[in-house]
From TrEMBL:
GO terms for biological process: methylation. It comes from the Bacteria. PANTHER family: TRANS-ACONITATE 2-METHYLTRANSFERASE-RELATED (PTHR43861). The keyword Transferase applies. InterPro entries: Methyltransf_25 (IPR041698), SAM-dependent_MTases_sf (IPR029063). This is Class I SAM-dependent methyltransferase. It is an enzyme of class 2 (transferase). Its EC number is 2.1.1.222, 2.1.1.64. Residues 77-167 form the Methyltransferase domain.
Length: 227
């Protein structure tokens, strides 16, 4: 039997499937082993550090989404790659109607047990479908963990298809000029790569808002549907 820890015996397509499985296994194990903040937040921070990291980013997100909520016309928000649901729950508390999904069964089980309003599903960036378009599609610290460029592109394009006219797609990455792999589970893509995928689909890059957390170089790219 072939050694399951190598990909030497596999075709490129098979190897992609193995890489996907490894990513899923990595995140599911991390969600089982780490607490609710370190599992989806910054693994190098202690709990108070992660509390601040999440709070600062939630504040930044709310300035992007807007500070109004209307009980009779809530915003429809999708949190793609929601982890244990920290942002999904916070946005539901702010009066928005939230769908959220992640590939990790452990993360989704935790999120469902927490409750708080969002509707959760196990799904991936490429296969989530919705009967309605969203006002805001959010994808925090997920896309740069998708190592394969074709999977990244397919996931990003699927998210774009879910944004309503004048709605926004908010994705987290750096604001760099080059494709930069970091360690063995991160690839930051240049802003130009996001624009190349999204602008032909009718989404204009309207803003990059840095997280503003210590020296962290990442931030939120906002794309707005103009057609
Ligand atoms: C760094 S965590 C961020 C979680 C959450 N967005 C947060 O900020 O708390 C990355 C998450 O992306 C999920 N993920 C990775 N690849 C995915 C994919 N292709 N589709 C959906 N979720 C994915 C992982 O399971 C993990 O929960």
């Amino acid at each position: 039997m072939a050694d399951p820890t190598t990909t030497d015996h596999l075709t490129a397509r098979d190897a992609l499937g193995v890489a996907d499985d490894r990513t899923r296994l990595y995140w599911d194990a991390r969600h089982r082993q780490r607490d609710d903040l370190a599992s989806g937040g910054h693994i190098g921070l202690d709990r108070p550090g992660n509390e601040i990291f999440y709070a600062v980013r939630l504040g930044a997100l709310l300035t992007l989404i807007g500070d109004l909520s209307n009980p009779s016309a809530p915003l429809f928000v999708l949190d793609a790659g929601c982890g244990k649901g920290h942002f999904a729950r916070a946005l539901a508390r702010c009066g928005h109607r939230v769908d959220a999904f992640d590939t990790s069964p452990a993360a989704i089980a935790h999120a469902r047990a927490e409750g708080g309003g969002p509707r959760y599903a196990e799904a991936s960036l490429t296969d989530w479908r919705s009967p309605w378009p969203y006002d805001v599609v959010l994808c925090v610290d997920v896309l740069f963990h998708v190592l394969d460029d074709s999977q990244w592109s397919a996931g990003l394009r699927n998210l774009a298809s879910l944004v309503r006219a004048t709605g926004r797609l908010i994705v987290a990455d750096s604001d760099g000029r080059a494709r930069s792999p970091l360690g063995d589970y991160i690839v930051h893509r240049p802003t130009a790569a996001y624009r190349r995928e999204l602008e032909p689909l009718g989404l204009r890059h309207t803003l990059f808002k840095p997280y503003g957390f210590r020296e962290n170089p990442l931030g939120f790219h906002v794309f707005t549907r103009i057609r």
